Amino acid sequence: xxxxxxxxxxxxxxxxxxxxxxxxxxxxxxxxxxxxxxxxxxxxxxxxxxxxxxxxxxxxxxxxxxxxxxxxxxxxxxxxxxxxxxxxxxxxxxxxxxxxxxxxxxxxxxxxxxxxxxxxxxxxxxxxxxxxxxxxxxxxxxxxxxxxxxxxxxxxxxxxxxxxxxxxxxxxxxxxxxxxxxxxxxxxxxxxxxxxxxxxxxxxxxxxxxxxxxxxxxxxxxxxxxxxxxxxxxxxxxxxxxxxxxxxxxxxxxxxxxxxxxxxxxxxxxxxxxxxxxxxxxxxxxxxxxxxxxxxxxxxxxxxxxxxxxxxxxxxxxxxxxxxxxxxxxx
Length: 331
Ligand code: NAX
What we know:
Blueprint: E1 5-10, H1 15-25, E2 36-41, H2 47-59, E3 65-71, H3 74-78, E4 83-86, H4 98-119, E5 125-128, H5 133-142, E6 152-154, H6 157-171, E7 178-179, E8 182-184, E9 192-194, E10 199-202, E11 205-208, H7 209-213, H8 216-228, H9 230-238, H10 244-259, E12 267-272, E13 284-292, E14 295-298, H11 306-330
Parallel strand pairs: 1-2, 1-4, 2-3, 4-5, 5-6
Antiparallel strand pairs: 7-10, 8-9, 10-11, 12-13, 13-14
Bound molecules: ligand NAX.
């Protein structure tokens, strides 16, 4: 039997946490034969609710779940973890300045970075979900210098999956037959959902999605804005932000990272930029990646037309600004 993997979920008493922990315990993140020990962190005001989640995990009698640590102590939460999914953060409240929200999250991610660096298992893989996800991940990277930068990522897989969903609805095809969309840049409304390289499996072979849609106005307009604004549309409809889709996408992100992407398929991940596609190095930016042996690699050599170029640069500019704002909160 396999040794259990320790998975940390921060913000575990929140709504994404509540959707995510049962998925982890059921093997959706790491596979149906991989036992897990869940580490759940939240802050003291949520301690009782967190304990309630722990009670429900016990009640669900998940065969793969070999233990649960539910705590408000960051060191206890981080000790020995192999995977860390960072969902906890300070939400933007009405009337709050961008700088104030950033400052709260910078201090959270700075201290959690140190705890992970000192207490997590060697080679721990980190996924930041909490917003501003890319910049929180960058702060975490800066303050956990002994964790390899390749191990620190942020979630844009939800946006990627939303793009697949929109194409499948538009073409009336199975979502599993659509692949290789790309989310470039920030997990924000400046992200660029790109279909230029996406394909669809048809009875007569794989076809470019763009050709099948045959409507550039939709591809360059409504499609992009629908994916960019999907989070807001969910809030409007549910009066709550995306939770089950965020949790499911977080599982997809980690599963593909650890177990590998299928041959010929790439996914989108927010990763530390090495300057590929002329994106400034030193940002956490969403790129198309393939994964093998637990490591991601940016897909190289894709053609970028003038329309796409502008969009890649715009979202990079926003991330450069966010980085400067985050650094200004440190001093
Ligand atoms: P909730 O407010 O329901 O839950 C957040 C939880 O984090 C709360 O239980 C809170 O007590 C806890 N928390 C706050 N500070 C903490 C700290 N220092 N340490 C540990 N826990 C702490 O929010 P939820 O809807 O679950 O969303 C969580 C985060 O995900 C938000 O930042 C949200 O903006 C972000 N999202 C990111 C997405 C992405 O694709 N990257 C999509 C979904 C989501 O909007």
